[in-house]
Amino acid sequence: MIADNLHDIQQEIQESCALVSRDASAVTLVAVTKSVEADQARELVELGVTNVAENRVDKLLAKKAALADHDLTWHLIGNLQRRKVKQIINEIDYFHALDSLRLAEEIEKRAARPIKCFIEVNVSGEESKHGITPQALPELIAALQTLEKIKIVGLMTMAPLHAAEAEIRDVFHRLKTLQQTTQKQVATCTELSMGMSHDFKLAIEEGATFVRIGTALFKER
Ligand SMILES: *Cc1c(COP(=O)(O)O)cnc(C)c1O
Predict the structure, then answer these.
(1) Among candidates 122, 124, 64, 125, which has minimal Cα distance to 98?
(2) What kind of fold does domain 2-218 have according to CATH?
(3) Pocket flag, ligand 1, residue 79 (CB < 6 Å)
């Protein structure tokens, strides 16, 4: 069942890429395992998935320990409290939700090596969402330049859950535009972490390079 879901998603990623003449190898599938136990995550990993994500510190550490026999790339995709930075920062490869200088300074203090970070941007302006405003982005990027342990790899956003396709597409398109502008400031800002189970096809059409997919991988068929 997980194998079938994975196969379908890989197929859909390829189709979406083909639609806009992108190479499917430019899109990384990040499997979000937050809703399942370690044994289901293991099933997925044994099918060849190497990028795994959790949104909470404790759950990431538990999954990582349970899957320690596999060489995986770990992504923390949820917001991170400063007091938990020390516990997690040297256990992950990518952090997708950097949204303040104070948090970055804590990472700078605790990280043993540069951490690949996405800046989370609240493109849609929904109050319920984390992330900085597009207006605040240039200033944050400038401030992060002085921190050696923060390696800005790209921007991340979440589209509104219940919105029309055109609106979701617009959010992704705006993140892409912001990324292109930011890349002039920081050359390493090349990636776009956007798209989840219900909207990853639109995200890929708009330029996503990392899609974060949970539900669609583990759903019952
Ligand atoms: C849970 C989560 C996802 C995956 O969502 P699905 O709808 O299950 O694919 C992606 N990104 C973030 C930040 C999440 O918390």
Answers:
(1) 122
(2) TIM Barrel (3.20.20)
(3) no
- State the pLDDT at residue 14: 98
Q: Please state the pTM of the whole predicted model.
A: 0.97
- The mean pLDDT of 135-150, rounded to a whole number, is 97
Choosing from 77, 80, 120, 128 the residue with most ligand 1 atoms within 8 A of its CB, the one to mutate for a pocket test is 77
Return the minimum-mean-pLDDT range out of 42-46, 67-71, 96-100, 122-126. Answer: 122-126
pLDDT digits (tens, 9 = 90+) for 76-116: 999 999 999 999 999 999 999 999 999 999 999 999 999 99
Paired with 95 in beta bridges are 76, 117
8 Å CB contact between 75 and 53: yes
The DSSP output letter for 214 is -
With a 6 A CB cut-off, is 196 part of the ligand 1 pocket? yes
Q: Where are the domains of the chain?
A: 2-218
Locate 174 and state its tokens: 């705006």
Closest approach atom of ligand 1 to CA 200: 9
